[in-house]
Amino acid sequence: HGRVQKNLVRRNVYKCQGCLQRTLECRWCHDMARGHSDWDDELCAKCDGTIDEWGAQPEDSRVLAWCSWCFNLAFHNLRITNVVRRNGFMCDTCEGRTAHCLKCHRAMTRCHSLYDDKLCFKCDGTIADWKDPSKNRLETLQKGIDVLVRNDPYISFAPPRRNIKA
Predict the structure, then answer these.
(1) Three-state helix/strand/coil letters over 68-88
(2) pLDDT given for residue 23 in this prediction
(3) Which pTM does this prediction carry?
């Protein structure tokens, strides 16, 4: 890991030499924790219980499921593990924050900055089925529900990192 930013008050920022992703020191064991564009993990994957030992892959680190943000069948990557609540994921297609639906477990719900939806859009009755993503997008927009489009500067799904301007 190479240091890219030295901080006196906060943790230093590093870049993994293997995957070129943002990393920071774990607050517990001083191994490397993941850094995201809008969030930094406090603990490394081993300390937060995601993996048992280094080199192991978590069981559900990449899930293929329907997304309630963009209505596509897409891969969702594990973003943050949570023992009390559900694990947080991020959709590969729209980069929306998601979690498993509590009813069907085949689709993902929307995660907001203060709360997470419990049911996906099919289970809560917002859409009839997942077959036609473009039809579902139009119907939800007509109902006044936002549809997340990748890199849309007008829709924010997460609070911005401090000192970073959009």
Answers:
(1) CCCCCEEEEEEEECCCCCCCE
(2) 92
(3) 0.65
